[in-house]
Task: inverse folding
């Protein structure tokens, strides 16, 4: 599967830390301070909703299209397999009366 290149969030969310340790009276109103406290959360939410989620949706849509040549019959099926043995192999499913001596990460084994 191809590598996913997602946009990294570059917004600086250290808003309160930038404030002067000894503010001059009258330079900042209470409303301004409240907005600064909320700004990091608002910026993160905006990045997730407007950048990250659309990029992930776009990638996932491409990854699961029926015309994607990387898909196997077993990933396209609806409770039916075109070829049972090929589908089991594609899914990494094996079965037997004793444990297998080898296998790949993600393989499924049914012992009977």
Result:
């Amino acid at each position: 599967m191809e590598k996913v290149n997602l946009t990294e969030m570059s917004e600086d969310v250290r808003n309160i830390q930038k404030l002067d340790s000894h503010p001059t009276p009258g330079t900042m109103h209470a409303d301004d301070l409240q907005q600064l406290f909320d700004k990091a959360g608002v910026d993160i939410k905006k990045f997730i909703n407007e950048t990250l989620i659309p990029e992930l949706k776009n990638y996932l849509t491409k990854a699961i299209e029926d015309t994607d040549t990387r898909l196997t019959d077993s990933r396209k099926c609806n409770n039916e397999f075109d070829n049972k043995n090929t589908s089991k192999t594609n899914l990494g499913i094996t079965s037997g009366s004793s444990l297998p001596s080898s296998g790949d990460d993600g393989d499924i084994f049914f012992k009977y």
Notes: The beta strands are 93-96, 108-111. The mean pLDDT is 77. Residues 5 and 55 are 9 Å apart (CA to CA). The chain has three helices and two strands.
